[in-house]
Write a structure and sequence with these properties.
Number of helices: 4
Distance between the termini: 48 Å
CATH architecture: 2-Layer Sandwich
Strand content: 15-25%
Order of helices and strands: EEEEHHEEHH
CATH superfamily: ATP-grasp fold, B domain
CATH class: Alpha Beta
Number of domains: 1
């Protein structure tokens, strides 16, 4: 893989959490250690509080139709300067414990609630389509 080097990588990249058409407001910034721009350690020193920018909040509008078409309902999006640099699908790692600690929330419940809401809406849409026949 070859990609453009973004100097802002020195400040870290954000992990955005995409679930069933929605990017959650809670995210972490992954920062590298040892004066290296690559994040490869998972510990409390390398994961920091982060907030989504307005531009990042609208990424879901650009990707959700394609993701749904391709059957992608859970993904971790790595972002630098509001640009997606990596899409993690097979192991999206949502940093649930770290997000819970940083934001003082119960993120796993929010994730399950979102999946249930999406599943219920899809089931209802399917049932509605049957009643048309």
């Amino acid at each position: 893989m070859i990609q453009e080097y973004l100097p802002a990588v020195q400040e870290g990249d954000k992990r955005l959490i995409y679930i069933c058409g929605k990017i959650f407001d809670y995210c972490v910034k992954k920062v590298a250690t040892n004066n290296d721009f690559k994040f490869n350690e998972h510990n409390e020193n390398t994961l920091k509080f982060a907030q989504l920018t307005d531009k990042e909040k609208h990424i879901e509008e650009k990707i959700k139709d394609k993701f749904e078409q391709d059957g992608i309902y859970l993904a971790g999006l790595d972002v630098i300067d509001s640009k997606i640099i990596e899409i993690n699908i097979t192991s999206p790692c949502f940093f649930i414990n770290e997000i819970n600690n940083i934001f003082n929330i119960n993120f796993e419940k929010m994730i399950v609630d979102r999946i249930e809401l999406y599943s219920n809406s899809r089931s209802q849409a399917f049932m509605d389509s049957l009643s048309i026949c």
